[in-house]
């Protein structure tokens, strides 16, 4: 809670510190199929966030007793590399924050997957944050959905997310690390873009009912644009335009 | 939790889901009806504050221990709050002993976020000597009998324990030394957030799901509501999703029951 409100996040002309308008998203670029060994993969650059996702499966479940008789077991691991944070080195062991985020990411993806079509199998989603600058959980979901589709896992829709923040009393689209740290609130939202179903919703900071309604509508509009980028990444992958991770053109 | 999902007999599952379509619940409640809530404070004498909450058969206890120590380096002018929760085997055969898993961690972090973001405590009033001596407040939550909706039970128990807490009064000498008096004082309470969870079962929304409802629900959504009716934390859980319209309806259901829950919390704290 320290420092909340201690940094001015809006300039005189109502712009954010990185020059964006309140309803402006950072630059987003997604690549599908960037890894050779994974069954599906994706790499996202979203503002300064850089996140790599690998998907394995459907495959036999290990350990065996974890297999579910009536559906696929989806496992997600969200992990921040020790050097991915602005602060001091993060210990490589999973933090409580990472354990919770892994759970809510899994529950954001599950509604989109035809889990019942693959009983006893498992799909593992490994998310590695290489560079973090706020809204990493929704960026991870956005990339993970592309990686799942790239792995050929049947889904009824993709899942895309964005975080709505509250800075100086106003709602702001796609908050960055600084705005998360010093702003008054953060509401990560993920949806299935075509179906309009909300599959991740969290919040901290104070919001009125009207603000929640407005935030959901801002998110919905942005998610349509994110969805277009997800589709482009998947189309390019199969027209051979995609890049291997580390081959060229990042940054 | 996850493994118990498949253990509900199919006919029972179908009964719950089809009754809900007619606006009926397996335990006889209406969709917007909360279970009977009981809150007792002072249930653990060695704690600085404690409470036991029951929502029907669901029971949880929470204890507050406060001690003086250094602040976190990044917030020298604030006391600290740590929330810990553990789903222990006394509460249900589905809980196993061992290191905290994702369910324990989610529960503790959701309660922590709700209390912190309301905020329940004025952490800046818990400083004795800036950067040196502050109150460190620990809340430990233990569900003791499981019939669904541990998030609300834990949130209520934690808040009741905070309201119940009395800590020694300290005098600070000009040179910064502390002297403890016999007098005990309440913690600086800023707001009384309440936790309200709504479950989605098919197309229906129900407040305060019981265990069987949790087994058949598609998803849940928890709101933490402050005194002025605004939302200070939300958490969606479960394998399904919510439409925007359902989120708004769920929020209205939560806002309807919140004042009564808060009144019960405050009454229990006053009665002690």
Explain the overall architecture.
The complex is a heterodimer of chains A (251) and B (272). Chain A has a single domain (28-238), classed as Ribosomal Protein S5, domain 2, CATH 3.30.230. In chain A, β2 (40-46) and β3 (49-60) form a beta hairpin. Chain A is built from 4 helices and 9 strands, in the order ββββαβαββαββα. The two termini of chain A are 32 Å apart. The radius of gyration of chain A is 18 Å and the shape is globular. Chain A is 26% helix and 29% strand. In chain A, α1 (96-109) crosses α2 and α2 (136-150) runs parallel beside α4. Chain A has a 5-stranded mixed β-sheet with strand order 1-2-3-5-4. Chain A has a 4-stranded antiparallel β-sheet with strand order 7-6-8-9, with helices on both faces. With 251 residues, chain A is α+β, with helices and mostly antiparallel strands. Chain B is of the alpha+beta class. In chain B, 28% of the residues lie in helices and 32% in strands. Chain B is built from 5 helices and 12 strands. In chain B, the strands form 3 sheets. In chain B, strands 1, 2, 3, 4, 5 and 6 form a 6-stranded mixed β-sheet that branches. Chain B has a 4-stranded antiparallel β-sheet with strand order 10-9-11-12, sandwiched between helices. In chain B, a hairpin with a 3-residue loop joins β5 (127-129) and β6 (133-145). Chain B is elongated. Chains A and B meet through α1, β8, β9 and α4 of A and α2, β12 and α5 of B.
């Amino acid at each position: 809670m320290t420092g909340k409100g201690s940094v001015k996040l809006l300039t005189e002309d109502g712009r954010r510190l990185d020059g964006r308008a309140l309803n402006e998203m950072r630059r987003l670029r997604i690549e599908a199929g960037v890894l050779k060994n994974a069954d599906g993969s994706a790499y996202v650059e979203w503002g300064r966030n850089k996140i790599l996702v690998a998907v394995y499966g459907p495959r036999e479940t290990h350990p065996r007793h974890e297999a579910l008789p009536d559906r696929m077991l989806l496992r997600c691991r969200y992990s921040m590399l020790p050097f991915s944070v602005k602060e001091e080195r993060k210990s490589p062991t999973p933090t409580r924050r990472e354990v919770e985020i892994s759970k809510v990411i899994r529950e954001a993806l599950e509604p989109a997957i035809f889990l019942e079509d693959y009983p006893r199998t498992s799909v593992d989603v490994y998310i590695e944050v290489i560079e973090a600058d706020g809204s990493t959980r929704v960026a991870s979901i956005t990339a993970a959905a592309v990686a799942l589709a790239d792995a050929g896992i049947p889904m009824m829709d993709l899942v895309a997310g964005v975080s709505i923040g509250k800075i100086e009393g106003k709602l702001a689209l796609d908050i960055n690390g600084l705005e998360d740290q010093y702003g008054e609130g953060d509401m990560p939202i993920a949806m299935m873009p075509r179906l309009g179903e909300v599959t991740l919703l969290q919040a901290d900071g104070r919001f009125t009912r009207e603000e929640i309604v407005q935030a959901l509508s801002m998110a919905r509009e942005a998610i349509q644009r994110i969805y277009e980028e997800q589709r482009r990444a998947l189309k390019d992958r199969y027209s051979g335009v995609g890049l291997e991770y580390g081959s060229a053109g990042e940054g | 939790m996850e493994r118990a999902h498949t253990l509900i007999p199919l006919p029972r599952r179908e009964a719950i889901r089809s009754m809900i379509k007619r606006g009926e619940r397996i335990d006889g409640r209406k969709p917007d009806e909360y279970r009977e809530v009981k809150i007792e404070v002072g249930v653990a004498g060695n704690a600085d504050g404690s409470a036991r909450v029951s929502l029907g058969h669901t029971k949880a206890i929470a204890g507050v221990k406060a001690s003086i120590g250094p602040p976190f380096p990044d917030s020298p002018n604030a006391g600290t709050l740590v929330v810990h929760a553990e789903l222990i085997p006394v509460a249900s055969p589905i809980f196993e002993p061992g290191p905290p898993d994702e369910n324990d961690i989610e529960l503790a972090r959701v309660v922590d976020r709700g209390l912190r973001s309301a905020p329940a405590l004025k952490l800046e009033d818990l400083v004795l000597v800036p950067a040196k001596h502050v109150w460190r407040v620990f809340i430990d939550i233990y569900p003791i009998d499981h019939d669904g909706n541990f998030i609300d039970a834990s949130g209520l128990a934690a808040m009741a324990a905070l309201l119940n807490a009395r800590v020694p009064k300290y005098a600070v000498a000009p040179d910064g030394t502390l002297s403890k008096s016999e007098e005990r004082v309440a913690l600086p309470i800023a707001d009384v957030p309440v936790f309200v969870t709504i479950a989605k079962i098919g197309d229906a929304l129900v407040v305060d799901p019981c265990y069987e409802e949790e087994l058949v629900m598609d998803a849940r959504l928890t709101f933490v509501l402050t005194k002025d009716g605004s939302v200070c934390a939300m958490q969606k859980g479960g394998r399904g999703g919510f439409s925007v319209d359902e989120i708004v309806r769920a929020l209205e259901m939560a806002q309807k029951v919140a004042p009564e829950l808060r009144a019960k919390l405050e009454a229990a704290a006053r009665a002690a």
